[in-house]
Amino acid sequence: MAATEQQHERALEIFLDERPELRIELDHLNPLLAQAKGETAAQYRAERLHEAFEAEAERLGLFAWELTLQLTAASPQDYQAQRLEVHKEVAEMAGMTWADYCQLHDL
């Protein structure tokens, strides 16, 4: 079961709550930059938040969906179970054996 949109939104809230400096930065973005991109200030802010989230996931060596699960799971065991479930779904969609997929992704 891949992370739901609701889980991802909750993960973004947690991520932002843990980084007050990022919240301040996002709250003070130049509205002209949003206008130049043809976006509303809210859209531009959301895009910057997603970029920061994805950069943090990459820094941790995770996919963004893994960081979402990590931040929203009830326990480390729950995170690991959900993570493996998603990886199994991806392996199946890719038509790979579980063993080959695990080897490819160091699982």
Question: What does this entry look like structurally?
Answer:
This protein has 107 residues and is mainly α. 76% of the residues lie in helices and 0% in strands. It folds into 2 domains: 1-72, no CATH class; 74-107. The radius of gyration is 17 Å and the shape is elongated. 10% of the residues are buried. The mean pLDDT is 93.
Helix content: over 70%
Count of domain modules: 2
Number of helices: 7
Approximately how much beta-strand content do the residues carry?
under 5%
Number of strands: 0
Shape: elongated
**Rg result:** 17 Å
Arithmetic mean pLDDT: 93
- Give the end-to-end Cα distance, rounded to a whole number of Å: 18 Å
Biggest pleated-sheet summary: none
Low-pLDDT sequence parts: none
Identify the notable features of this structure and list them briefly.
107 residues, mainly alpha, 2 domains, 7 helices, DNA repair protein, DUF6388
